User: Which sequence fits this backbone?
């Protein structure tokens, strides 16, 4: 199942929760869904290249996934359930792989490439990286403050968050900005190889 929602006016996200962290954005709902279908294979390959076993995702055809509405936005089904130990290990492994992919993408950039801005109103690679780090800190700090026996329901800025949602969002955010940095580098004619 693919879930699409308007994150803010004119900015849609399409989430494929069967592959945690697989997300795409677009100016319309349809654009975000189409892009999510395209990047599914890229994200799966990125994880595999960085040591994540993809056995339970290898036979999924993103073009055959149906599109649905979230019944309890912003949570996807199952995010209000307790974690199993293997889910925590899987999250940590995916998070490490996503972070390694970002580092590999930017490791050999020159200072000019880090600071280059493709056009007015867009970010440089450095700005995208700073945004990623700042957001990670904010999300992780939320987890740290939650009591261990009260992991399920927290309202932050009027929105419902659970530990699973925070972890999904961390993975999605990594992949969103991995894609974003690739777009910046392509616009600057920089290297885009992993």
Assistant:
């Amino acid at each position: 199942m693919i879930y699409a929602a308007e994150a803010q006016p004119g900015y849609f996200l399409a989430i494929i929760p069967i592959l945690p962290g697989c997300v795409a954005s677009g100016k319309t709902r349809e654009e975000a869904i189409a892009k999510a279908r395209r990047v599914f294979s890229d994200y799966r390959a990125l994880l595999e290249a960085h040591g994540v076993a993809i056995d339970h995702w290898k036979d999924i055809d993103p073009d055959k996934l149906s599109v649905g509405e979230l019944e309890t936005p912003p949570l996807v089904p199952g995010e209000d359930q307790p974690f199993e130990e293997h889910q925590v290990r899987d999250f940590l492994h995916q998070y490490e792989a996503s972070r390694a992919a970002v580092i590999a993408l930017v490791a050999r950039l020159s200072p000019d490439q880090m600071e280059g801005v493709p056009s007015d109103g867009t970010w440089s690679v450095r700005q995208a990286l700073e945004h990623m780090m700042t957001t990670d800190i904010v999300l992780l700090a939320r987890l740290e403050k939650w009591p261990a026996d009260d992991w399920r329901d927290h309202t932050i800025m009027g929105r419902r968050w659970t530990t699973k949602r925070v972890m999904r969002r961390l993975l999605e955010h990594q992949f969103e900005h991995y894609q974003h940095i690739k777009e910046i580098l392509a616009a600057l004619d920089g290297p885009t190889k992993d």
